[in-house]
Amino acid sequence: MARPTIRDVAARAGVSLGTASRALSGNGSVRPATREAVLQAAKDLDYRVNSLARSLRSNHTASIGLLIPDVRNPYFSQLAHVVEQSALEHGVTTLLCNADERPEQMAMYVDVLRERRVDGVIVSPFADAEQALAGLDDDAIPTVFIDRRIPGSPTPSVTSDTSSALDEAIALMSRLGHRRVGFITGPRTTSTGIERIEQVATAADHHGVEVEWQEGDFHTESGHRAATSLLGSGVRAILASDAQTTEGALSAIVEQGIALGEGLHFIGFDGTPATALIRPSLTYVRQQVQEMAATAVDLLVRLRAGEIVTSVRLPSTLVLGGSARPAADHLTEERSCA
Question: How far apart are CA 127 and CA 253, in angstroms?
Answer without folding.
Answer: 32
